[in-house]
């Protein structure tokens, strides 16, 4: 499938705008672990994902990571075009969690179309509002939800993403997603194992009792 099938408001563009987009698009394939966008000084462009999975995260002053959202097939990333949004005061890093095929829309091209097209401007505003809602939800989780509940929720989310109850993920990776320390996550997972909710082996976590994890995450 081509770009036209992935860009949600393609049919609301005029022919000149369509031609401009198609003639300036950059197609890119990135391997798992590749950093695509690194902070506010990096203006990569808008990313539209054809297939794969990306992770957007921020770094604390101490170097701890915390995931603010993840991107999947057909998702658009605006924060990779940070130079288009001068009001953003935090640096976001975007990394491929899986091998990913994507398109990059140059910032100046998108801005030009956005000034001409009300549907594109409206779509951009809605997308921006959705991403900021993700950030606000994350802040709420950190402030009001204990770590055991957040770990349980993360394991369930990861299981849904991978469509498997056996997760190939390290304790370090979970810590990076949740803004915690590996040692803390390890202790929490060992507690989950003692309670019969998970089974741990090297590099693998098996969800042994999803109903109890769901109960915990919903409390």
Describe, in short, the structure shown:
44% of the residues lie in helices and 23% in strands. It has 8 helices and 11 strands.
Walk me through this protein's architecture.
Helices cover 44% and strands 23% of the residues. By secondary structure, the protein is α+β, with helices and mostly antiparallel strands. It has 2 domains: 3-143, Jelly Rolls (Sandwich); 145-218, Winged helix-like DNA-binding domain superfamily/Winged helix DNA-binding domain (Arc Repressor Mutant, subunit A, Orthogonal Bundle). A 4-stranded antiparallel sheet has the order 1-8-3-6. Strands 2-7-4-5 form a 4-stranded antiparallel sheet. A hairpin with a 2-residue loop joins strand 10 and strand 11. Helix 3 (107-116) crosses helix 4 (118-144) and helix 6 packs across helix 7.
CATH topology name of the largest domain, in short, is: Jelly Rolls
Order of helices and strands: HHEEEEEEEEHHHEHHEEH
End-to-end separation: 42 Å
How many helical stretches? 8
Q: CATH H-level name of the largest domain... which superfamily? A: Jelly Rolls
Helix/strand-derived category reads alpha+beta
Distinctive features:
elongated, single chain, 4-stranded antiparallel β-sheet, Jelly Rolls, alpha+beta, 8 helices, 219 residues
Protein topology:
Blueprint: H1 3-6, H2 15-24, E1 26-30, E2 35-38, E3 46-51, E4 54-59, E5 65-71, E6 76-77, E7 93-96, E8 100-105, H3 107-116, H4 118-144, H5 147-162, E9 166-167, H6 171-178, H7 182-194, E10 198-201, E11 204-207, H8 210-218
Antiparallel strand pairs: 1-8, 2-7, 3-6, 3-8, 4-5, 4-7, 9-11, 10-11
Helix pairs in contact: 3-4, 5-8, 6-7
């Amino acid at each position: 499938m081509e770009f036209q099938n992935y860009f949600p408001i393609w049919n609301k563009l005029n022919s000149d705008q369509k031609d401009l987009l198609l003639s300036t698009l950059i197609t890119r394939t990135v391997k798992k672990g590749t950093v695509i966008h690194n902070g506010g000084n990096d203006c990569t462009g808008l990313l539209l994902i054809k297939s794969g999975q990306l992770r957007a995260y921020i770094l604390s002053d101490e170097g701890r990571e915390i995931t603010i959202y993840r991107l999947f097939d057909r998702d658009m990333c605006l924060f990779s075009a940070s130079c288009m949004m001068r009001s953003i005061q935090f640096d976001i890093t975007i990394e491929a969690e899986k091998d990913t095929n994507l398109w990059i829309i140059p910032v100046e091209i998108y801005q030009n179309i956005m000034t001409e097209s009300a549907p594109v401007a409206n779509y951009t505003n809605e997308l921006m509002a959705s991403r900021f809602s993700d950030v606000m939800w994350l802040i709420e989780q950190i402030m009001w939800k204990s770590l055991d509940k957040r770990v349980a929720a993360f394991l369930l989310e990861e299981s849904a993403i991978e469509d498997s109850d056996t997760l190939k993920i390290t304790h370090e990776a979970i810590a990076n997603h949740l803004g915690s320390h590996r040692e803390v996550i390890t202790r929490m997972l060992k507690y989950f194992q003692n309670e019969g909710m998970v089974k741990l082996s090297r590099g693998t976590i098996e969800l042994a009792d999803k109903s109890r994890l769901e109960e915990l995450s919903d409390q």
